[in-house]
Each structure stands twice: as structure tokens, then as C-alpha cells.
Amino acid sequence: MQQNTLPQKLWMSATGLFLCVFLVIHLLGNLQLLLPAADAKEQFNWYSRLLSGNIIIKVIAWVLYCSIIGHAVYALLLTLQSRRANGTRYVYDKRGASSKWYSRNMGLLGTIILIFLVIHFKDFWYRYKFTDLPLDARGQPDLYTVVVFAFAQWWYVLLYVVCMFAMGFHLLHGFFSAARTLGLYHPKFTRWVKVSGWLYTVVITGGFIIIPIYVYFTNS
Amino acid sequence: MDAKIPAGPLAEKWASYKAHAKLVNPANRKKMDIIVVGTGLAGASCAASLAEMGYQVKSFCFQDTPRRAHSVAAQGGVNACKNYRNDGDSIYRMFYDTIKGGDFRAREANVYRLAECSQQLIDQAVAQGVPFAREYGGYLNNRSFGGVQVSRTFYARGQTGQQLLLGAYQALMRQEAAGKVQLFTRHEMLDLVLIDGKAKGIITRDLQTGAIERHGAHVVVLATGGYGKMYYLSTLAMGCNASAIWRAHKKGACMASPSWVQFHPTSLPQSGEHQSKLTLMSESLRNDGRIWVPAKQADERAPNDIPEAERDYYLERRYPSFGNLAPRDIASRAAKERIDAGFGAGVMKNAVYLDFSKAISEQGQNKIAEKYGNLFTMYQRITGINAYRQPMLISPSAHFSMGGLWVDYELMTTIPGLFALGEANFADHGANRLGANSLLQASVDGYFIAPYTIPNYLAGELQGGKTDTDHPAFEAAEKAVRQQLQQFLQSKGQLPADHFHKTLGKILYDYCGLSRNRAGLEKAIREIKALKEQFYHELCITGNERINTELEKAGRVADYFEMGELLCHDALTREESCGAHFREEHQTPEGEALRDDENFCFVSVWEWNKGEPVLHKEELVFENVKLSVRSYK
Amino acid sequence: MKLTLHIWRQEQGASTGAMHTYALTDIPEDMSFLEMLDLLNEQLMKQGERVIEFDSDCREGICGQCGMMINGRAHGPLKHTTTCQLYMRSFKDGDTIYAEPFRAAAFPVVCDLKIDRSAFDRIIGAGGYVSVSTGQAPEANSIPYAHETAEAAFDAAACIGCGACVATCKNSSAALFTGAKITHMALLPQGQTETAARTQKMVAQMHKEHFGHCTNTEACEVECPQQISVLHIARMNYEYNKASLLHK
């Protein structure tokens, strides 16, 4: 059954933009990993515990889980609908020449990000929440050591970097596409959003790429 | 011929008609069926307006959607005597310009009504959302167009026809969605059905399934456009055809002055055997371009290698006061004269130069690009030539048909209940149409005239009830249509319909084109007869009776033969030169047209008589203007 | 030039189609692409074969009737060009050319390269008009609006309804077509009164016709013969969101 896709698109953009905001907070927190080792350990573990205990943070966390799931589910529904809308496939298809590759492959990029999230959640979130981590000098669960241990492996760092690139391209298209869906049509503001989207993407992606590489080189 | 022109002073005729026209009670309107064939400006506006009034309308077009009708291609603009420029424009002045532009061969009352309704049309189009050009203060802008001294042309960039048509199309789709209009796209009308001498329906072919259908109504409106495509190479669309009006003609609707066909001076020349159409370049180019040919015959040099002294700016030479802006018929004829005399340019020596070098050196390339950039791009796309560096090649091509089905003041043909609107009727342009008057006439016919005159006719038809499509007349018409299609399909020749169409086009260009003479026209008639004979023996059609472009073409070409003959016959019997009709026997010593008001101040109205046309005359009476010689020297 | 052509042949909507191969020689470069097909059809007729059905009418790029996928691109390799305005000088001797109909569930194939685009008409019928009947119009200059507004409205109104935007879209979305009409009407004072209802009705019809959603790849703007801007899609979204929030 064909549904009006515009409300679904609105949910896509709303959840997407929320995730964008989350990424900023997440990156700011993670930047603590770039401090000198001793400070970093203390700060990062304190920050991790702060996040796990706060009720407001808990609510936001649930919104976050819902956003991730909602974003993925709506994406899947919309993709299925566009499959139906396409009808017969082209025998010879060079339509790619008229648009950017990443704008056409948001689903693929999104899937890579989803796989990454599974690994990411399993290695850090799950271990922090559901296993007993050793405690640091101040009695806080020592997530820092877990992180440093993980990023000491070159293949793990490489995996991260590749996935961050996928996320980067996803953000690059997603950020301005969301603005479009919300109805930003004025040419001047559209230009601003394009520029902001680029800046945002470079900062976020760059930040998340630097951290594992820095940790890898400072701890090996 | 009685045109049923209302009595009274010219300026009050239309008001008086409207005041006395019969009306149909709103409750009765939904019982009345109206067929409108064609969805161009005239057809769509008429169908929408009648549906808004409450009638049941069936609308037909051969294209895949009503929005494609060829009104879409009109570029320049639409005239209206709003006098927004305070430059002395008025209904009378517009009426006079149109009458004079038509070389005094149009009906006074019709032309006056056209000018009168032009004001309302702009209001209507603006209300529909047509984005006409605006001045910075927010009020409507105008430009001036060939042949007049005031600024009365409203425009939407170079796509005025498209925007006006979209307005009418949207109005039509609004009624379709409301269930008042039934739309039949990819349908072609193949015959008109008469019951007791009145138009009561049509036979159509569904071009998608091949189904032959009967449609009955109380009134049939033909708004099927012009027949210029008969010349094969023309500015018209591939599907434009004369079949609807021709088949109506064969059922008894008289045809008026069919030989009055306008040739547009600035279209692209033919470049090869396989060319299918001649693209129109906006006439506005003549505002800055200078037209010339080499002064030496068969000059093989590239245009830029020909020095100034060896160029013949023939329009500036012959018509010093109007120069490159001489009216269409004059500019086209002058080009043909030079080409025929052996001074033509281009590979096929069939064109003249339109040169922008002077304008570019005076105004700069940027200014020219700003004005005509899109046209230069289009020119380069088609020809591969950069017109900023080299002059364009242009030539005249068949464009607009002033002639068409004869209609009276009510736009009704000689068949009661059959109306003809827009370019399909002979209407208001006389022997030559002024630029930006065709969109106007089509719209005015559909929006403002037919909605009064059709009810006036319908008021007398209330007793009859629904039209019965099982009537023997429908049966006979359907049978004839099926027979013709079968005949085509069984044809076992080797030549495609296009071959015959092209050959016919060439005959018409040569002998019944920009200039005509007795010997040529007689020869053309003989050649067309022979070609028609060959057509029925050597036509090749593949495929079946379902979707089949070739079958569509065959029917149209078959009609063109008969109509082409009538064109030549009409031109032959009009022993004068007027407007677009130029008989070489009738010219001044300087080669200008010589009109004969003494003997030919009438419209030739032809009745079908199995290929032996019978002439009736509608004498033109001029009570409000003095007949004068058109001079653009 | 010499060409090898692979052209989609399909007897009618219900039947299955396939690519057929044809060869042509001596094609001059100043021939248009459609004239090249005319020539091929002439050859097919000589061999007693059914001609290739394709749509075209004005052949000067304004009616919107022509349109097919040429070498995998809507209206062929050039940007902002209709099929009829594509000339053979865009190809070279020995080229292989693929021609297929525009494809989308909302554009069923009628025969060979002909498709049914009546879904566009129904979107317009759903609300793409100003509700003014003949005779109701006020004096034209009584509704002044800025020169820039008129130009912007024209930019949106210039759509020729060819369907290339849908054909080139990976989601077969009609957002550009619908958005352009909504913007055209929303910009003008005479169209504004109905904007909310119009937007909702047209968007609903667009989905009812089984067009896909828009993912802002902007391919449509590139292939659009009239260079209709993708910002009209954003305008449609804006009007839709506003209507959803504020309209009853």
C-alpha cells in the first residue's frame, strides 16, 4: 500500500538531525581521549560515569535508541516503496552521471554505519553496561583502558576510519537533505546550510578519525 | 453567404448580440453534451468555460495529454489594447491595425470583437496565474511587435503560448477532476456525424488500442488548429493535421480561402533530405539582426569573408522605412525572391543571412546574449554554428493558416451545430496575420465567444434528448472510417506515407507557396492528382490496426492531397495579390503586391463537391475603414 | 556515421519487451536523433517490419511529448535538452546507442518507447490551478506583484511535463514536477489563497499515482530541459509542512 511519503521523510530528517546533534556531544566527550594519558583516563572515566547515572541523560539515551531504530526502519520502508515506484529496471543505466554517488547510495552508507554501530555498541556500550569492568584509581569503571586497548590494534583502527568515512558521506548528503525536507527553500539560506553541512561533516568526521589514530600512535 | 452579423454600429454589435442571445436554463445544461475536438488554447478554454457553466463536455486530443497542443510553441506574445502605456492604443486602433495587417480581407465585425475581447483575456489569464512579464513597480509590461506603432503585446519571456496554454489546460483539468469534462487523450477524430443535417457526433480512433468509437452530442466544436503541416516542412508540430476540418468539409462545412497561408520569415533552413521540421526562431531577432545575401550569385565564400561592399541588405534597400522589421509576408517574399534569383546562402543555397555583427559591435556581446542568449544556444545546438561569430542562416517556412472552415459571426460553420474555433476557422486575420494575434484569437474564441454563441444554438435543441449513437448515420460513418483504415492496411506498396507527404510539400512550396502563378498552380493540381493516384497504389504500411503511427499518417496525408488541391484551386481563382497570397501576374512594376478591391473584395467559400469545388462568395463590406494600399517603403 | 542501435521493443503494455539490435549507416551529424529514428523506421517498413513507436510532436523542445532514455540518460547525454533537440553530432562514428522508454511504475509503457504520463495530468487536476472561472477575473493590473516574483513564478511555471525528472530519479519521484507547480502558484497573490489545500491535494495525488519519494540527489534538475530548480521541491515541502501544522 502506497503511503504519503512526506511524513515519513519528516521523521527521517527529524531523527537524522537529532543524531547529528548527538554526534557533536559524543565527539566533545571523546575529545578527552586526546589529553595526556593520566588526565585522559581520569577525565574520561568520570565523564562515562556521569553519563550512566543521570536521569536526563537516560531519557536522551532512549530517544537516541529510538532515533537510530526509527531512522533505519523508515529508511527501509521508503526504499521498499521506491523499489515499487521504479517498476521495470533499465537495461542500460547511466543515470549516475547526473548526481553525486553518495547521494544515490545513502542506503548503502547507512547500512555500513549500522554494522559499525553494532560493533561499537558491543565493544563499549554493552561492556560498560552489562559486564564488570575493572575500576580505576578513583573507583570509577575503567572504560578508558578498554578504549585504549581496542585502539591499539591496527585493524580495529582501520575499521573505524573506514566506517567514519562512510558516516562522513552520509552526513554530507543527509545534513542538507534534511534541511530540504523540512522545507528550507530560500537560495541564500540553502547556501548557508550547504556550507555549514560541509563544515559540520569535516569537523565531526575528522574528529572521530583523529581519536583512534592518535590513541593508536600514542599507545604503541 | 450570410455571416449573421448583428445590426447596429460596429462598437455595439457584440454587446447587442450578447444582450439578445438565447440562454439555457442551468438545470437543462447538464443534459446537454458538447464535443470539443482539440485541446489547444481555443479547445481547452472553450471546453473549460462550457464545463464551468454546467454543460457536459467531452474533450479530445491526439497527444498524450492536453498540455502538448501546438499553442504551446507560440513564442512572442499576445496582443491586447489595454493602453497601459498611454500610447494612444484603443479598441478601434487595434481593430484597424488588424484589418490593415490582413490586407483588408477580414470581416469588420469579427475583428472589432477580437480587439474588444482582448482586454478581458489579459484579466482572465492573469487571474489564472499566467506569469506575464512585470515592470519593477509590479504592473504588467508590454513590448511592441511588427506592423504596429503601439506597445500592446503581453508576454511571458519567449514562452507566452506555453504559459497561456497551461492556464487553459489547468482550467480544463480542474473541470475534469470535477467530473464535468471527460477527457479522451490519444484519440483522433476521423469523421463527423450528421443527423438531419445537424452535427451530432464524431467517430474517433483510440490511437492506443485502435478502437473505433462513436461519440454523440448536441454540438460539435472543432478547435483543431491549422493545416500548415501540409507543406511537410513547417514550423508546426509533427502531429498537426487537417483531417478533422477536412472531413467536416466533406460532410458539408464550407472552407474559406484556404490558400491564405503565412510563411514565417525567420525559421531555420532545410539542411538535408531527412529533415522533419523547420524550427522557428523568434521574430524578435529581427530587432537587432540585419538580413543580407551575397551581392554575387552562387557566392561560395564563407559569410565573414564577404566584404561589406559585396553584401546586399535587400530589406533595407527595398523598404528603407521599415527595413529589417518589414511585416512577415513582405520579409518572407523578399527572401524568396533573392533565393530564387540565385543569391541564396548556405549549403543548399536556400537561406539568407541574419547578421548580428553590427549589433554586437555596438551593444557588446553581453547585451545581445542577455536578449537572445537562449536562441543563440538553440541555434548552435541544431546547426553547430556559433552565431556570435558568424551570421545565422534563416529562411521562410510555412507557419500559420489564415484560411480554414468558414464560420459566421457566431463561429458556426455551414453545418448547424458544428462550430470552428481558433486557427481551424478562417476567422479574423484576413489574408495575413499580425504577430501575437493568433494566441489572442484562439483564446478569445474559446473563453469569450463560444460560451455565448453555443448556448444560443443549444437553446433551440432542448427538445431532442440525448443523441443516439446507434442511429444509422453513426453506423454509416463508422463503416466508412473502418473501410478507409482497412484499405490502408491492405496496401502493398513500397513507399511510406512520409514520402508522399514530403513530395506533396515540395509541390506546394514550389507552386503554392510564397508566390504563385497560373501555370505553376495548374501544374501543381495535375501533380497532386497524380501523386494521390500513386499514393493509393504504392503506399506501404506495416503493423496492424492497433497502435500504429504509420496508419495515422496515411489518413492525414490522404486528406492533404484533397485539401492541397483545393488550396491550389483557391489560389488559382484569386486573380489578385493580397497579404500572404502573392500572384506573380498581379504585382506593381517594383514587385509589390497588387490588390484588386474591385473584383476580389470577398472571401472565397468553397463547398465540397467530390473534388470539383463550388465557389460561394462572402462579400466583405467595409463601413468603418477606408481601403488603402499597404506600404512599408 | 555508422551506428549500432539497441532499442526497446514492446508490443503493448501487457506484453514483455526486449532490446532489439539495428544497424544504420550514413547518418549525417546535422540530423536530429528523432530524424535518425524516422530513417530507421523507413528501413524497417521496407523490410515489412512494424515501425518503432515513439512520441514526439513539436520537435522544438517545448511541448514535452518526446522523451526516452538514450545511453542510460534521460533525453540523452546532454544536460537540459529534450530528446528532439539532441543532434547526431553528439555521437561519433561506430557508436553503440541504447534507447529505452522512461521507466517508472507511474509511467506504464504503451508500446515500444511510448509511455503513459497521464499521472501528471491527474496531479494537476488534483489542485494545480487557480480556482477562477471564465468571467470572474478582476482587472489585470489590480493584482500587482514584483518583477522578481513574476520571474521566479515563470521559472517554476516553465515545466514542460516531459517526465525526465521521474525517469532519471532513482526513486521515480515526481517531486520536481509537483513542486514546480506548487511553487508557481504559491508565489503569485492570486494563487496564494488556495496554497494549503492545493499542496495537500497535489502531494496526496502524487503518492496515489505511485511515485516514489525524493532523496534530494538533484539529478532531476540536471536532466530537466527547462532547468527547473530543485529548490521548488523544498518549497513544496515547506508548504506541505506548513499546511500539515496549520491547516485543519
TrEMBL record, chain B:
Membrane-topology annotation of the record: Peripheral membrane protein
GO molecular function annotations of the record: electron transfer activity; flavin adenine dinucleotide binding; succinate dehydrogenase (quinone) activity
Pfam family for this entry, one: Succ_DH_flav_C
GO biological process: anaerobic respiration
InterPro entries: FAD-dep_OxRdtase_2_FAD-bd (IPR003953), FAD/NAD-bd_sf (IPR036188), Fum_R/Succ_DH_flav-like_C_sf (IPR037099), Fum_Rdtase/Succ_DH_flav-like_C (IPR015939), SdhA/FrdA/AprA (IPR030664), Succ_DH/Fum_Rdt_flav_su (IPR011280), Succ_DH/fumarate_Rdtase_cat_sf (IPR027477)
PANTHER family: SUCCINATE DEHYDROGENASE 2 FLAVOPROTEIN SUBUNIT (PTHR11632), SUCCINATE DEHYDROGENASE FLAVOPROTEIN SUBUNIT (PTHR11632:SF53)
Keywords: Cell membrane, Electron transport, FAD, Flavoprotein, Membrane, Oxidoreductase, Transport
NCBIfam families named among the record's database cross-references: PRK07573.1 (NF005749), sdhA_Bsu (TIGR01811)
FAD-dependent oxidoreductase 2 FAD-binding domain segment(s): 33-439
Protein name (record): succinate dehydrogenase
GO CC annotations on file: plasma membrane
Gene3D superfamilies, sorted: FAD/NAD(P)-binding domain, Fumarate reductase/succinate dehydrogenase flavoprotein-like, C-terminal domain, Succinate dehydrogenase/fumarate reductase flavoprotein, catalytic domain
Family to which the UniProt record says this protein belongs: Belongs to the FAD-dependent oxidoreductase 2 family. FRD/SDH subfamily.
Reactions this protein catalyses: a quinone + succinate = fumarate + a quinol
Signal peptide annotation: none
Enzyme Commission code: 1.3.5.1
Residues forming the catalytic site: R328
Primary site of residence: membrane
Domain (Fumarate reductase/succinate dehydrogenase flavoprotein-like C-terminal) ranges: 501-632
Organism from which the protein derives: Deminuibacter soli
Automatic annotation (TrEMBL), chain C:
GO molecular function: 2 iron, 2 sulfur cluster binding; electron transfer activity
UniProt-listed SUPFAM superfamilies: 2Fe-2S ferredoxin-like, alpha-helical ferredoxin
Ranges for domain 4Fe-4S ferredoxin-type: 150-179
Top-level taxon of origin: Bacteria
Coiled-coil features, chain-numbered ranges: none
Cofactor: [3Fe-4S] cluster; [2Fe-2S] cluster
Assigned protein family: Belongs to the succinate dehydrogenase/fumarate reductase iron-sulfur protein family.
Name recorded for this polypeptide: Succinate dehydrogenase/fumarate reductase iron-sulfur subunit
